[in-house]
Amino acid sequence: MTVTFNVCTASHGPFGKRRSIGTNICSVCCNDKDVCNIDGYCGAEKFVPPTGSNLCYKCHLSGRPDSCHQLTLCDQHSVCSLQQVTNYLGHIRWEHGCVKQAVCSSLSNHGGCSYCCDSPLCNYNCSKTHSVITSPSISSTTTAIQQTPPIVTQTVIRPTNIKYGETVTVQCLVTGNPKPTIDFLVKGRRLGPNVHVDPTTHVLTISNFLPYNDGDYRCIAANLLGDDHKDIHIQGQP
Questions:
Q1: List of residues 6+ apart from 198 with CB closer than 8 A
Q2: Residue 212's domain is classified under what CATH number?
Q3: Which of 39, 165, 184, 206 would you label with 66, given CA atoms 20 to 30 Å apart?
Q4: Quick one: CA dihedral 189, 192, 198, 202, positive or negative?
């Protein structure tokens, strides 16, 4: 008697169908989800994560929320997460991985497609309904650990060689969580009438730069955890 089996396409993941030597007793094909062949087909023992842990997707800066196919095993204190982020070029990307349950509320406050979930491989899609996890009641000390005070990392002045009469812009690059507020001061006096700070971009603009505008400026970043500043000397030339 001749027995014919359908041949499965070879898997590119960590689990796959190995060419056997001898009699093929059981063959099963599946393609309904990632690593579907760990579900106990052909009498094999089904993969069960250790108690309290969870199997999650883990990718850095994926192009789409459903394009991650790398896996990790989160520990018993963590849950799966998907976070919408922006790369250095300003393009939207997605970060898959594990986070501590205590930070899930702050993650969901980021907006866009950002959430925590506690079922296997649940952090892969923005359109499905998720079992979203929120943070348990925790002390303010624990919450503060997940946040960072502000740091003024760099100041950018344009143009670099200032001529009187030109328009000058000053931008402070700042890190911190919660997002810091940014203010500017001039040492010894108030900002001039030709100085404007955009409330959205926090860029200081000096129109028709005059000798009066020469001086020492200070950029100040602040949030609930503290503040930081960087001093800038601006000097024009005739």
A1: 205
A2: 2.60.40.10
A3: 39
A4: negative
